[in-house]
TrEMBL record:
Signal peptide location: 1-22
Coiled coil regions in record: none
Keyword rRNA-binding part of the UniProt annotation: no
Keyword annotations from UniProtKB, A to Z: Signal
SUPFAM superfamilies cross-referenced by the UniProt entry: Oxidoreductase molybdopterin-binding domain
Entry annotated with the keyword Repeat: no
Domain of life of the organism encoding this protein: Bacteria
A Pfam family per the record: Oxidored_molyb
InterPro entries linked to this entry: OxRdtase_Mopterin-bd_dom, OxRdtase_Mopterin-bd_sf
Domain Oxidoreductase molybdopterin-binding: 72-142
Protein name, per record: Oxidoreductase
Amino acid sequence: MGFFKALAAAGLFGLAATAVVAQDLGAPTGEVLMTITGAIERKNAGESAQFDLAMLEAMDPVTVTTSTIWTDGVQEFRGVPLVRLMQEVGAQGSMIAASALNDYTVQIPMEDAVEGGAVLAFEANGEGLSVRDKGPLWVIYPYDSSKDYQSEVVYARSIWQVAKMEVTK
């Protein structure tokens, strides 16, 4: 009988540990801007991880100063490095399917989620990104930092009005 109690307790401990991990992500208290699903370890809403602006702002945002092919002159973007966001949810995949508000979807390889790489921007030039101005979230790259970021492939991954991401294997 002691063995079965120990086994049951171990099973419950495993469930409790999972619940703690989910709680560590925190729950959004404001408007949900983005939902991440798929091969992720940390969730806060069923099988997904949801984020509001305050949660994104709390993830050590970076500032990227760069020109883009969609804007005039050099812009200053502020946002969460994609690598940091993927670490936050415990991403376990090789691809990120990023979808816009209108369900347009692009594939971003996990290799783009590196230090100095893609950023999920929520501000441009000190102002929050509105839907009209490619917001509220826009995947940008530091285009001016490397010729590697100045290609049609990378420009195609620079999706705006991001609302969902799905991490796939």
